[in-house]
Write a structure and sequence with these properties.
alpha+beta, 2,3-Dihydroxybiphenyl 1,2-Dioxygenase, domain 1, five-stranded mixed β-sheet, 40% strand
Length: 132
């Protein structure tokens, strides 16, 4: 049996704001934006060179969901964006205004730095040692 995660749902304030940020700041592609009626949309974005994993941008619909925007993992790193060239990606993201919370660091497993998305969720930008 073969399985993989197809998408991870990410709560956002506004669909269009999130689509624009992920495209501009991280270079993600809009894969699908389907109107489901009643103000609800099916919005999928993916990083360049993705092989199946996507983000489902989900507009928060009630107070409980709105309270979780930017804190879906209790303040921990929530998502891990792997790259084959850390320096290139880090430089491009910084030039596009992505807010990094630390300087890049070299660990036994690779090079990493934590950044925040437009809502405040924490991500690792990560180049694993075996990626090169």
């Amino acid at each position: 049996m073969k399985q993989h995660l197809g998408a991870v749902s990410l709560l956002v304030r506004d669909y269009d704001e999130a689509i624009a940020w992920f495209a501009r700041a991280l270079g993600f592609a809009l894969v699908e934006d389907t109107d489901l009626g009643g103000g609800k949309r099916w919005v999928l974005v993916e990083p360049p060179g993705a092989t199946g994993s996507r983000l489902l941008l989900a507009k928060a619909k009630n107070a409980r969901e709105r309270a979780a925007i930017g804190n879906q993992s209790g303040g921990r790193v929530f998502l891990f964006l792997h790259t084959d060239d850390f320096e290139r990606a880090h430089g491009a993201f910084k030039a596009r205004g992505v807010r990094f919370l630390e300087e890049p660091r070299h660990e036994d497993y690779g090079t990493v730095a934590v950044f925040e998305d437009l809502c405040g969720n924490r991500w690792d930008l990560l180049e694993l040692k075996e990626a090169r």
